[in-house]
Amino acid sequence: MAELSTLARPYAKAAFGFALANQNLDAWAKMLNTLAAIVSNDKVDAILSSPALTSEQQVTAITAICGDELTEECKNFVSLLAENKRLTLLKEVTEQFVSLKAQHEKFCDVEVTSAYDVDSEVEENLAKALSNKLNCSVNIQTTVDKDLIGGVVIRAGDLVIDSSVRGRLAKLTEAMSL
User: Tens of pLDDT along 86-126?
Assistant: First the structure.
C-alpha cells in the first residue's frame, strides 16, 4: 500500500497545513474521520466507483451524507479530491493527517503487549521512560498475549521493542540456523 500513502501524502499535508494555519486541527481531524468512515461504506464506495456520476455528483452525495458537519473549506477539499479522482484515498489521507497532528502535538500512542497483566505502577514507570525516549507524551494501551511466555513487546509507530521470551527464542533460533 505504499502507492496509496504516496498519493495521499500531499493531500494530508495540505489539509494539515491549512488546519494548522487556521488553528483548527481538532475540527479537521473530526471532519476527515467522518469522511473516511463514509467512503469506507460499501454503498458509498459503489457511488464513488460509478463511472456514470461526475465528480460534482459524487461530492454532492458525500456532503449530503455529512450534513452540517463539514465546513465550506472541507467541502472544497472534498471537491479537490473528487476532481483529481482521489476520493478513495480519504481513509489514507485521514490516517496521515492524524499522524501529522500527533507529531505536531508531540503525542504518541504506544501499544504494550505483555504475557501478563501490567499493573498501574509499572505502566506509569513505562510511560515516563517512553516519554523521555520518544520525546513526546504517550498514551499506553496494554494487551495480554499468553503466547509471549514472558516479557513485553512495545510498539510506538515504527519503533518496535521486542523483549519477549518468544522474540528472544526466535532470534536465538535464527542465529543458530545460520
Answer: 988 999 999 999 989 988 888 888 899 998 888 889 889 98
Residues 147 and 82 in one domain: no
Which residue in this structure is represented by grid cell 497532528?
Answer: 101
Q: What is the pTM of this model?
A: 0.68
- Beta partners for residue 143, in sequence order: 113
**DSSP β-bridge partners for residue 110:** 140
Of the residues 71, 103, 135, the one at which a domain ends: 103
Q: Which structural domain range is residue 40 located in?
A: 2-103
Q: Give the Cα-Cα-Cα angle 72, 31, 6 (nearest 5 degrees).
A: 100
**Boundary of a domain, candidates 103, 135, 167:** 103
Q: Where are the beta strands (DSSP E) in the chain?
A: 107-114, 137-144, 152-156, 159-162
**How many domains does the chain fold into?**
2
User: Please, are residues 17 and 95 in contact by the beta-carbon 8 Å criterion?
Assistant: no
